[in-house]
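Hello again, I could really use a second opinion on something today. I've been staring at a protein lately and its backbone has me curious. Please have a think about how the structure follows from the sequence. I owe you a coffee for this, so here goes:
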Amino acid sequence: MAHISASVYTSHVPAIGAALDLGKSAEPYWQPVFKGYEYSKQWLEEDKPDVIFLVYNDHATAFSLELIPTFAIGCAAEFKPADEGWGPRPVPVVQGHPELAAHIAQSVIQDDFDLTIVNKMDVDHGLTVPLSLMCGQRDPVHGAWPCPVIPFAVNVVQYPVPSGRRCFMLGQAIRRAIESFDAPLKVQIWGTGGMSHQLQGPRAGLINRAWDNAWLDQLIADPAACAATPHIDYVREAGSEGIELVMWLIARGAMADVAGGPAPTVKHRFYHVPASNTAVGHLILQNNR
């Protein structure tokens, strides 16, 4: 049967994608950010999954304020990089895994979570930046990402957004779905977005290093308590866009220890400020089978 081998957590700052695409990754400002992912790229090469289930949020490209699903799963065979106003990123088309995606949709919906099934969707920096950070730059025409990717979009843009507890429970349902898929697939689940940042208003530029790292400590050691963090705490302590962290709870809820298994191994942890006007957080947790 399929199984989840690891979870990966990372910020998806759009300026990181621009730095990569414009050849600025070696500049002094950006060097510390990309250095934090050197281990991760090597780890992914050595522990390559068959499929990545990637949780992210759309930034008004596939969806708009006219229609925003709370949870949307990409079931298409491929997903093109979105044009976010300055052309699509020069990265490969994302290949999907329709069979596993359809199975997860069936299982999770029957497990009482309402998902929107998306059969055509362009994917923006929320999905492609994490792939670039973990996999390195790939030729957009002749290159490819290392494996198929199932995009899973979460509304953290228009209130009301799902609670951390619901995201955590959804992760558990996704784990059950994957483990019931009748094929020997090794699946990684990635939670992206965050960490603390605010893009507008009097507090624009807010970054809270202490809160971010305390939240990471709790995500690792006591994820159920972390999932109980109320929305107002994210907004107050991590800025209006800090709410993106609830997406990390989907990935954490899918880990084996949440279902009574052994605690995961922390393979890598990284934190850096700033990248543009955002705190960059990154974590790799590996299941122990």
